[in-house]
Prior knowledge:
Elements: H1 2-5, H2 8-21, H3 31-47, H4 51-64, H5 69-87, H6 93-96, H7 99-133, H8 148-160, H9 163-183, H10 186-203, E1 208-213, E2 217-222, H11 229-244, H12 247-259, E3 274-275, E4 290-291, E5 294-295, E6 302-303, H13 307-310, H14 346-362
Parallel strand pairs: 3-6
Antiparallel strand pairs: 1-2, 4-5
Helix pairs in contact: 2-8, 3-7, 4-5, 4-7, 5-7, 7-9, 8-9, 9-11
Amino acid sequence: MRNRERPPLESISEKLKKKRKSSLSLPPITKSEGILLDKIKQKTREYNLNNVTRTRAYLDFYLRYPDIHWAFLGHMVSRNGGWNMTDLKGEFLARLMTKKDRQLFFQFLERGNWLIFQDVYPQFLLYEESLKSRKPLFHLFAYLNISTFMETIWNQFWRTNDTYILTMALVINEQSYLEKRVVQNPQYQKDVLNKFEFLLQDWLSFNHILFPYGRKNLAGQTLHQFESLHERILLGKRLYKILFKNKEIHQKAVEWAKSYQHTGSRKDYWPHIFNSVNEGTPGFPYQLHLKSCQLRPGAKRIFSPMLEMAWKNVSQNEAEKGDWFTDWRVVDYLVEDEEIINGEIKDEYCKTLERLELAALAKKAITF
């Protein structure tokens, strides 16, 4: 009874402390559980083909299980990942970056996108199977290289259905999972993060996370310190507030996501400004498209290709093994704060587009 009466975060903390004190070993599984794990791995591989298939899988799962808020948050953030990927072949960056640099940056984006999906989607599928079986199956996480942190959280969610704690735990988990595998990866540090730091912070829209809703509306946030795990987790908390605490934005964002299939082209949310077909005339000098975030009279729309036209599917190496979880005090991130986030981002995003236009007009290639 004492355990049931404890506040959720206190209960989670106690369980995580015990896990760090004991040596963890794989629990025995039954033959049927082994078959289930194989099915989950196969289904995850099937949907982890590219950014478009991942993004669709997140939304489909959320529509089936709306209590799993991260599935919709992940869907909307994954759309941004796809737009970032196609930007590399779009109107501006094809002029401002070398082919080799664009390829390196795509590989970096794709690896992170792929890694998150292959970690989080099996969690969703095991939750779905738990509902069907009417009993929690989260002890199987260990066989899928999923953090023991998330096993504790999902078991807590099974008892309490606390959607906020689960969502924030998934934010912590996915960003921590990426930390050593991508952000601290020496090769990505050398080829991408150090090289593109100026671009990420000051020029491109890669640090803007946009949530379209309603008619031409945008909400979102801007990340200024991608290399900081702490800042990425706090960004996730702010993005969740924008998407779920404002009922109007949430309802309209879900309706928008259901109405506009993700293609990777920014035409998905602003077809009045972007087009997946290149309307430009080869050989003609670059002409400015925008003024105050509207097309100039007679101007062509900005080229933003669909993902399938921009990049081929990539075969990824197996995810690196190991559990990121070492310190139970990460539960501090699960505390809900009272900060109010309005999500206004349209003006900032428009200024970014205008900076890119001016650079493209000057044909002033950004060199490193």
